[in-house]
């Protein structure tokens, strides 16, 4: 009995001390609670971005497979579905989801430059995120040559920006940091490559030292990647690919792949920029005056290209690229050029869709065409991988992000120096042909938002 009384007294004493400590430090504890609550919201949103990327991936892949299967059974089907679906998707985009057009990366960059006051049409929101997923899946499922990785950046930024209203001011995470974290988390989850997401945040989205160094931001990016790995598996984006190491004979291969893909990627980026910022002529006037008729025309062109090429130009190009990397099947020599044309036409339509995966597919097609020329210098898989990183770096002019994405996707750590050199050279060659794609498009979007000068 005495022992119980003594224990009770000790417990009561501890409770009194605890209560006294809480009363004395009430403000501090409440502040810490708010900070950790905000961090939990931030990290929880990173998990939500990962889940959204997984859902987007599964829906897109399923839609592309169903379209390819239906087109194989009914070859006439794309000539009806692709143009009509394109017109319907464009109407939905312009009517209900303005701001969701195109890749999504320029929108995030432009949103980071949003002025404090003045008119501004939002480029990131929950509505846009929903529309980006649904319209992106519809476009891929209708045969347009789009990827889902760029759109996932806008989706992630939209989700993270929406979560910002639940975060306390004491956490000191600015809206720009939320956009960076959400966009980078989207890349990490889309490519199943967390390191690529961090580098993308540094190279493409952020110019801020704070957001580069913030452990909270990096944690959200990594969480999105972990969620993607949990649901999609821990294999690389293209699975286990045999990539052979470097040798003294590889230098010629690197230079050849980098220069050719640099010029091709620069022309690709320049064509996309011209189509948005300075396209002139009768066809451009026709697109401006009759956008729905123009997207029907684009759909017919895509159906014709897909029909004549055996359906290899529809969708993101992931199955074709994987077959080239694994050696399961060879593509026709015209795969790279045909995918190039199909992606440009798809972008001209004004529908939501990205160019990351199609760029990798185009690069793989170019690499296959260079294999006979360089077979004595490098293995075929090495040539394909080098051309993939070269074209992606040239198209985006983000060489560090490009080589890390490809390195993580194919487990190409033995080729890291070659990948880095190819990306840097190709990006430098591309700069002689075109301005940076995403930054230039973002500047154009900001100018469109600005009010006209007073007369």
TrEMBL record:
Compartments (UniProt record): Membrane
Residue ranges of coiled coil: none
Membrane topology classification: Multi-pass membrane protein
Annotated GO MF terms: chloride channel activity
Domain of life from the UniProt record: Bacteria
A GO CC annotation given for this chain: chloride channel complex
TM segment ranges: 40-59, 71-92, 124-146, 178-202, 214-232, 252-273, 294-315, 340-366, 378-406, 412-429
Alphabetical UniProt keywords: Chloride, Chloride channel, Ion channel, Ion transport, Membrane, Transmembrane, Transmembrane helix, Transport
SUPFAM superfamilies: Clc chloride channel
PANTHER family: CHLORIDE CHANNEL PROTEIN CLC-E
Protein name as annotated: Chloride channel protein
